[in-house]
From TrEMBL, chain A:
UniProt keywords, alphabetically: Cell membrane, Membrane, Transmembrane, Transmembrane helix
The keyword rRNA processing is annotated on this UniProt entry: no
Compartments it resides in: Cell membrane
InterPro entries found in the cross-reference section: ABC_transp_permease (IPR001851), LivM-like (IPR043428)
N-terminal signal peptide: none
Membrane-spanning residues: 40-57, 63-82, 89-107, 113-133, 140-161, 181-202, 236-253, 286-305, 311-335
Source organism, top-level taxon: Bacteria
Protein name: Branched-chain amino acid ABC transporter permease
Organism annotation: Nonomuraea cavernae
Topology in the lipid bilayer: Multi-pass membrane protein
A UniProt-annotated Pfam family: BPD_transp_2
From TrEMBL, chain B:
The organism of origin for this protein: Nonomuraea cavernae
Family annotation (InterPro entries): AAA+_ATPase (IPR003593), ABC_AA/LPS_Transport (IPR051120), ABC_transporter-like_ATP-bd (IPR003439), BCA_ABC_TP_C (IPR032823), P-loop_NTPase (IPR027417)
Name of protein: ABC transporter ATP-binding protein
Gene3D superfamilies, sorted: P-loop containing nucleotide triphosphate hydrolases (3.40.50.300)
Pfam families the UniProt entry points to: ABC_tran, BCA_ABC_TP_C
GO molecular function, one term: ATP binding
Membrane-traversing stretches: none
SUPFAM superfamilies in the cross-refs: P-loop containing nucleoside triphosphate hydrolases
Superkingdom of the organism of origin: Bacteria
Species lineage: Bacteria, Bacillati, Actinomycetota, Actinomycetes, Streptosporangiales
Domain ABC transporter: 20-267
Keywords assigned by UniProt, alphabetized: ATP-binding, Nucleotide-binding, Transport
Length: 358, 273
């Protein structure tokens, strides 16, 4: 009766009740309907603003925004695995690479870009399930090491398969353009559309039964069997889904960078990905977006550190987990709760006042 | 097989085909025999399983619920052998259980925690949930309603949205019982449900359980040290001592049996002196 993630960093925030409240609160509170409508409205307005970005931002800022969205999608998948199912699987950067390479290679063979997105998703999802078969029986440190090794092997394969991937030298990516729209704006619009759909679908399934089941697996481990849940099956599903999403994000990344090479997908990507999950808030709904934005700024800052980059990210990761175990999203929750408390206090004093008057 | 024939000692109210039958179960851990030829039929209604610490009571539950595979013997659920089935398969056959220390998802609400027990009663799959199909929404609404009703039954309906970790430990144990009941089990296994509960919580537990069981054919097997609770709830009780069933029958008779008194209560008295 082991408990996955118990011995690892995830433990730090499992006990924190302020962490993932979004799933529970949206449906159990009496005013859930009104709250849901407000949230939906906010989402629509945000989406419209984001669609306007290419018309107002300069090319550099558009690139940064685009990169943030790509990382946000990648982290959405990583968070599903690490934050929700509680498995520290470290093949994510490699699966992301599969998406970037797979899409570019398929396009060379004449497959339209938009078709390559689900294709690389399915391929990487399948590969992630294969990685998952031995991995789901491991927990904590051993799971991390095993998946890290498999991920590194995948990147090595990309280097080795020179004929297909161009080896260490890299591969040019054919850029997809929407009719009548320039390259970078096209890439941005596709990224935004994919990100919106991905966040919508993932959030909806995590807020309900699927998300509850994943959390039961994470918090009860093998004991979730008593709930009729096969822990191994759901761990495997989490692997497959995270791999699918990683590759989808990877295909978008290739479009954005227009050139991919294996060194892009090593530690200098994997560690920032962990930063995105934990700084955003592991097991949250919007953490991936916030974590990605944070990491993109960080990546800009650490650009010139060379080999020290991974160490710098590592330090950030440790500090983030130690100082803010629930991630940045937990700050919002704290803020909201305190405001709620404030409002309740205000209401009580109001009713007390009316009693006094009566 | 048992030292005393259980069928003659079982009162009429507990008659009927056993929901689950342990038949000659032997279980050892590294040469240490924990269960030795345990035969125990559990009939509809409440059955108590008592005995000193280390007698093998929890091991019995783990064997029934599929966490342990016995070295010998058979477990029959509704006449069908379930030995070798995994825990989640057995749970899906209608076997629910609770744990000595409550195992809830700390940051999820009481209702959400109870809902995690509903697994096999969702008619649609995860894809219908992903795409927000009406069937999935109906499932969710129906089961959420049942989860709230169960919390009401146990007197915990006041704060359905409060995070599980913010409830006192006694209430957490009751939430766990409600979660087990949402599976609509034909066999409910409770591992020391009253340990750590205040008198008020024990009353909630007893009322909730009897309400729930009143219009059902389900069997409830309770491990408990609180003999008053056992006497209140269970028309049948079995005593486990060093991995063997040494006595079973109506609590009044069993608890007066000199063998039981020596094995179980005697030990307590000796410790108390």
């Amino acid at each position: 009766m082991s408990e996955p993630g118990r011995a690892t960093a995830t433990t730090t925030h499992t006990e924190d009740p302020t962490m993932v409240t979004a799933g529970a609160e949206a449906v159990t509170e009496p005013s859930a309907h009104a709250v849901g409508r407000t949230k939906g409205l906010v989402a629509v307005v945000a989406l419209l603003l984001l669609f306007a970005a290419p018309f107002v931002l300069n090319s550099y800022l558009l690139f940064v925004l685009n990169l943030t969205l790509v990382y946000a999608v990648a982290t959405l998948g990583f968070n599903l695995l690490v934050g929700w199912s509680g498995q520290i699987g470290l093949a994510h950067a490699a699966l992301f690479a599969i998406g970037a390479y797979g899409s570019a290679i398929a396009m060379e063979q004449g497959v339209p870009f938009l078709v390559t997105i689900p294709l690389v998703g399915l391929a990487a999802g399948g590969l992630a399930v294969l990685i998952g078969f031995p991995a789901i029986r491991l927990t904590g440190f051993f799971l991390a090491i095993a998946t890290l090794a498999l991920g590194m092997a995948i990147v090595e394969l990309l280097k080795g398969a020179r004929a297909v991937t161009g080896g260490g030298g890299g591969l040019n990516v054919e850029v997809f353009t929407l009719p009548g729209i320039n390259g970078s704006a096209s890439t941005y619009f596709v990224t935004l559309a994919v990100a919106a759909v991905a966040f919508f679908l993932v959030r909806r399934s995590l807020i309900g039964r699927f998300g509850r089941t994943l959390q039961a697996v994470r918090h009860l481990g093998q004991l979730s069997g008593s709930l009729g849940v096969s822990a191994l099956r759901y761990r495997l599903i989490a692997f497959g889904l995270s791999g699918f999403i990683a590759a989808v994000a990877g295909s978008l990344y290739g479009q954005l960078q227009t050139f991919v090479f294996p060194a892009m997908f090593e530690m200098n990507l994997l560690v920032p990905m962990l930063v995105m999950v934990f700084v955003g808030g592991a097991g949250s709904h919007w953490g991936p977006l916030i974590g990605a934005a944070f990491a993109v700024v960080l990546i800009e800052l650490f650009q010139d550190l060379g080999d020290l980059q991974a160490i710098a990210y590592g330090v950030v990761l440790m500090v983030a987990i130690a100082v803010l175990p629930g991630g940045l999203v937990s700050l919002f929750a704290t803020f909201r709760d305190s405001r709620l408390v404030g409002r309740l206090l205000a209401r009580r004093t109001a009713s007390e006042r009316s009693e006094v008057r009566a | 097989m048992t030292p005393m024939d259980t069928s003659t000692a079982t009162p009429d109210s507990a008659a009927g085909h056993p929901v689950v039958e342990l038949d000659g179960i032997r279980m050892s851990f590294g040469g240490n025999v924990v269960l030795d030829d345990v035969t125990l039929p559990v009939r509809p209604g409440f059955t108590g399983l008592i005995g000193p610490n280390g007698a093998g009571k929890t091991t019995c539950l783990n064997v029934i619920s599929g966490y342990l595979r016995p070295d010998q013997g058979d477990v029959r659920l509704g006449g069908r052998s379930v030995v070798g089935g995994s825990a989640h398969q057995i749970a899906r056959l209608g076997v629910s259980r609770t744990f000595q220390t409550p195992r809830l998802i700390p940051h999820l609400s009481a209702t959400e925690n109870v809902l995690t027990g509903a697994g096999r009663h969702y008619r649609g799959g995860h894809l219908s949930e992903l795409f927000g199909l009406p069937a999935a929404r109906r499932d969710e609404r129906r089961l959420r309603g049942q989860a709230r009703d169960l919390l009401e039954t146990f007197g915990l309906g006041e704060h359905p949205g409060r995070a599980a970790s913010r409830f006192p430990i006694g209430s957490q144990k009751i939430i766990e019982v409600a979660r087990a009941l949402l599976n609509e089990p034909r066999l409910l296994l409770l591992d020391e449900p009253a340990a750590g509960l205040g008198a008020e919580d024990v009353d909630r537990l007893v009322t909730g359980l009897t309400d729930w069981a009143a219009d059902r054919d389900a069997a409830v097997l309770i491990i408990e040290h609180d003999l008053e609770l056992i006497t209140r709830l269970c028309p049948a009780v079995a005593v486990l001592h060093f991995g063997r069933i040494i006595q079973s029958g109506a609590p009044a008779d069993v608890l007066r049996d000199p063998v039981v008194v020596e094995a179980y209560l005697g030990a307590d008295f000796a410790a108390g002196d």
